[in-house]
């Protein structure tokens, strides 16, 4: 009964799995208990032998459909499938598919779901992963849908924080940069609402602030501070989550030019930070973190990217590999 109360259960589970989730579309479908289950399995993945792992997705085929560029998400998912003994089909450039001949997303998914056991997809349109999940009888995992959500990034971000601090509760997490179009911060802020005594510091220009509906949805769950000056927040944050200004989502290139260099984190910027403060970034970075930060003990972003592997292995193992 306790598990039933704490799991956000899907009504129509496509595949029976221990997560109790049909598709991974949005992080708000995850309770704290479900996040902790993913992290437990991810930690097990880091310890498991190659031989044991290779049985988890034996005989399974995963569709990797990337309608938008990606390095980490696509390659860590594809590497995860291969580490678990499965196979991958898919594309990293939709121009090489019948999308080029104007095939709709729904029709594309209706076909591909017949060829695979699970679909991982990234698409520029917000809501596209939800639409794919509606037409697919196989689980769909959202690898980023426009400026909307990036739930698997959030699960690996939380795993990274947990590994670095030994906990997530009680931390002050600063998010800086493009909080309007940055899907990773939308998902991460939402997930942090599941934890206790979290303080969120949203640092952005007025034109790139966290969407109001997200701030309102977090009221009463976390303590929120907002401001423009990074210097004001640096001494207090435990984690500084830096985001790239999402050039590709600006309707007006001139608006991007005006804001692109507003926040640049350097070793000098963080001189007043706590010695334990960690800097995260979903990557790729453009120029928002200078290279001199890479060699400081504050740098956590490369470890964060590496954690994509155990976390995505855990998700695939839970969704279609029968892991519990
Ligand atoms: N963090 C992330 O989503 O990176 P990619 O765009 O390279 O997948």
Mean pLDDT: 94
- Bin the strand percentage: 5-15%
Number of helices: 13
Please identify the oligomeric state: single chain
Structural class computed from helices and strand pairing: alpha/beta
Q: Calculate Rg over CA atoms.
A: 19 Å
Number of strands: 9
Ligands, ions, cofactors? phosphoric acid mono(formamide)ester
Shape: globular
| Helical fraction | 25-40%
Distance between the amino and carboxyl termini: 17 Å
Order of helices and strands: HHHEHEHEHEHEHEHEHEHEHH
Sheet with most strands: 5 strands, parallel
Strand order of the largest sheet: 7-6-5-8-9
Low-confidence stretches: 1-5
What does this 3D model show about the protein?
With 324 residues, the protein is α/β, with parallel strands linked by helices. 35% of the residues lie in helices and 14% in strands. It contains 13 helices and nine strands. Strands 7-6-5-8-9 form a five-stranded parallel β-sheet. Helix 2 packs across helix 7, helix 4 crosses helix 13 (308-320) and helix 5 (105-112) packs across helix 6. Phosphoric acid mono(formamide)ester is lined by residues 70-73, 144, 153, 282-284.
């Amino acid at each position: 009964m306790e598990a039933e109360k704490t799991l956000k259960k899907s009504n129509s589970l496509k595949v029976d799995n221990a997560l109790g989730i049909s598709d991974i579309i949005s992080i708000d479908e995850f309770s704290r208990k479900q996040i902790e289950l993913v992290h437990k399995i991810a930690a097990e993945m880091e310890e498991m032998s190659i031989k044991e792992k290779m049985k988890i997705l034996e005989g399974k085929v995963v569709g990797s459909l990337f309608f938008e560029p990606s390095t980490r998400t696509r390659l860590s998912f594809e590497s995860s499938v291969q580490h678990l003994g499965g196979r991958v089909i898919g594309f990293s450039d939709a121009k090489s598919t019948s999308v080029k001949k104007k095939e709709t997303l729904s029709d594309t998914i209706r076909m591909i779901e017949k060829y695979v056991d699970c679909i991982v997809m990234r698409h520029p349109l917000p809501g596209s992963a939800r639409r794919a999940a509606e037409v697919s009888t196989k689980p769909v995992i959202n690898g980023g849908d426009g400026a909307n959500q990036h739930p698997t990034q959030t699960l690996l971000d939380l795993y990274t924080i947990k590994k670095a601090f030994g906990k997530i509760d009680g931390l002050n997490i600063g998010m800086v940069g493009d909080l309007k179009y940055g899907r990773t911060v939308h998902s991460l802020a939402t997930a942090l609402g599941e934890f206790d005594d979290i303080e969120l510091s949203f640092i952005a220009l007025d034109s790139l602030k966290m969407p109001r509906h997200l701030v309102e949805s977090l009221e009463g769950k976390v303590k929120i501070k907002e401001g423009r000056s990074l210097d004001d927040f640096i001494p207090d944050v435990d984690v500084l989550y830096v985001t790239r200004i999402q050039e590709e989502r600006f309707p007006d290139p001139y608006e991007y030019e005006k804001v692109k260099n507003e926040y640049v984190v350097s070793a000098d910027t963080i001189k007043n930070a706590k010695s334990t403060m960690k800097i995260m970034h979903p990557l790729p970075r453009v120029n928002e973190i200078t290279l001199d930060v890479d060699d400081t003990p504050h740098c956590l972003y490369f470890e964060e990217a590496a954690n994509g592997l155990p976390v995505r292995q855990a998700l695939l193992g839970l969704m279609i590999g029968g892991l519990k």
